[in-house]
Write a structure and sequence with these properties.
Elements: E1 3-8, H1 16-31, E2 35-40, H2 46-57, H3 63-70, H4 72-87, E3 92-95, E4 102-104, E5 113-116, H5 119-126, E6 130-134, E7 137-139, E8 145-147, H6 153-163, E9 168-173, E10 194-196, H7 197-202, H8 204-207, H9 213-222, E11 226-230, E12 238-241, E13 253-257, E14 260-269, H10 274-284, E15 289-294, E16 303-311, H11 315-325, E17 334-338, E18 341-347, H12 357-367, E19 374-378, E20 381-387, H13 391-401
Parallel strand pairs: 1-2, 1-9, 2-6, 3-6, 9-11, 10-12
Antiparallel strand pairs: 4-5, 7-8, 11-12, 13-18, 14-16, 14-17, 15-16, 18-20, 19-20
The chain binds aspartic acid and magnesium ion.
């Protein structure tokens, strides 16, 4: 007997008919002898519909009321799923965030979970009932309803898994797992059987479509095994686990991101404080910067070049800020902008112990005639900035160049390995 979390996203509970499918899935696990806690999102499109209503009233609606409104979507689906389970002969009970004390901080629309009291859920499943929890919502210390940010039901699911020490947190979604790269961009993309939390976080541009990033951080902190799988098939999906449960491969996935823009400052006075001034300006205005490259100083104390990337959506604002700041850089500085760029990245834990991964990446791109305009690295990732028109070519050649098209798709049965939650720190 295992204690399992089954989380269903909006598309999986989008109609009453689909609710019968998810109910069947939970009942099946229950009949196999497992205890089941379901977490549900709002019916597909519902959160958007609610937020749209709010924005018809005010351009910037009050955030407390926005959360009170948005949280209703999950209340509806939790109650409807519980009724569906009952209709199908199971005993079931729904719970809202505050009823199981999902305590959060008071940051409306992006609250973070502080604690969850698992007692009531544990009692419910011990009585042989299926518990159905409204995802995405919590309550702050003053009793206000809060929500956890878009896609936040994933985080509810993982946090509850940690709180009640579930054996596995199954996230049912409309894709059947996490892929080595975007299958729409690269026909040889393969489903990854097991991936480490750290890799999943670095592959955010791929993974974010599947899991809320925050949920992976919580899973990593508490050692919750996540099983990302399709709500339309029985086949195992992707296990997101700690690295001790993995065989190391050098490169696990190839990600790309077309949403960045490049800002290049030329002729910047090469003296202490200039670069600090530029980035303080950006951070004071809540612009987050991704890659930063400064060309080597000549040492002669003359000028240098600074290149950095920001999100495309911030570019207009950044232009205004930089232009207003030009005077304090001295007369000789000029600036260029380019939003036709893409960042391609290779990610893998194995990079820590294998030399030559970055140089192989550069040669693969060079062989395709793709010019690299900036590079950044972390312990388990190498990113290159290239011209956007080469994105597909770069992704495909890196993917196959690192042998990801030949990855074995063996996956241990979900009921065995990878189920047990290890409590860490
Ligand atoms: N319903 C919320 C949203 O659409 C939360 C979720 O689906 O996870 O973002
Ligand atoms: Mg989602």
């Amino acid at each position: 007997m295992a204690l399992i979390i089954q989380k269903f996203g909006g598309t999986s509970v989008g109609t009453l008919e689909k609710m019968r499918n998810v109910a069947r899935c939970a009942i099946q696990a229950h009949e196999n002898g497992d205890q089941v806690v379901m977490i549900v999102s709002a019916m597909s499109g519902e959160t958007n519909r609610l937020l749209k209503l709010a924005h018809e009233i005010a351009e910037v609606p009050d955030s407390r009321e926005l959360d009170a409104l948005a949280a209703t979507g999950e209340q509806v689906s939790a109650a409807l799923v519980a009724m569906t389970l009952q209709k199908m002969g199971a005993r079931a009970q729904s719970f809202l965030g505050h009823q199981i004390r999902v305590h959060t901080d008071g940051a409306f629309t992006k609250a973070r979970i502080r604690t969850i009291d698992g007692t009531r859920l544990k009692e419910t499943v011990q009585e042989g009932k299926i518990a159905v929890v409204a995802g995405f919502q919590g309550v702050d210390s003053r009793g206000n309803i809060t929500t956890l940010g878009r896609g936040g039901s994933d985080t509810t699911a993982v946090a509850i898994a940690a709180a009640i020490e579930a054996d596995v947190c199954e996230i049912y979604t409309d894709v059947d797992g996490v892929y080595t790269t975007d299958p729409n961009m690269c026909p040889t993309a393969r489903k990854i059987a097991r991936i480490a939390y750290e890799e999943m976080l670095e592959l955010a541009s791929l993974g974010a479509k599947v899991l809320q990033i925050r949920s992976v951080e919580v899973a990593m902190k508490y050692g919750v095994a996540i099983h990302v799988r399709s709500s339309f098939s029985d086949r195992p999906g992707t296990m997101v686990v700690g690295e001790e449960d993995l065989e190391s491969v050098t490169v696990t996935g190839v990600a790309y991101d077309k949403s960045e823009a490049r800002v290049q400052l030329i002729g910047v006075p090469d003296k202490p404080g200039t670069v600090a001034g530029v980035f303080k300006l950006l951070s004071d205005n809540h612009v987050s910067v991704d890659m930063i490259i400064q060309s080597a100083s000549s040492g002669s104390g003359e000028t240098t070049e600074v290149t950095f990337t920001v999100n495309e959506t911030d570019l207009a604002r950044v232009k205004g800020l930089i232009e207003a700041h030009m005077d304090s850089l001295g007369g000789g500085t000029s600036v260029e902008y380019d939003s036709d760029i893409a960042k391609v990245s290779i990610v893998g834990l194995g990079m820590r112990s294998h030399a030559g991964v970055a140089s192989k990446m550069f040669s693969i791109l060079a062989d395709e005639g793709i010019n690299i305009s900036a590079i950044s690295t972390s312990e388990i990732k190498v990113s290159c900035l290239i011209s956007a028109k080469y994105t597909e070519l770069a992704v495909r050649s890196l993917h196959d160049g690192f042998g990801l098209d030949k990855l074995a798709q063996t996956n241990p049965p979900p009921n065995k390995q990878g189920r047990k939650i290890r409590q860490s720190s």
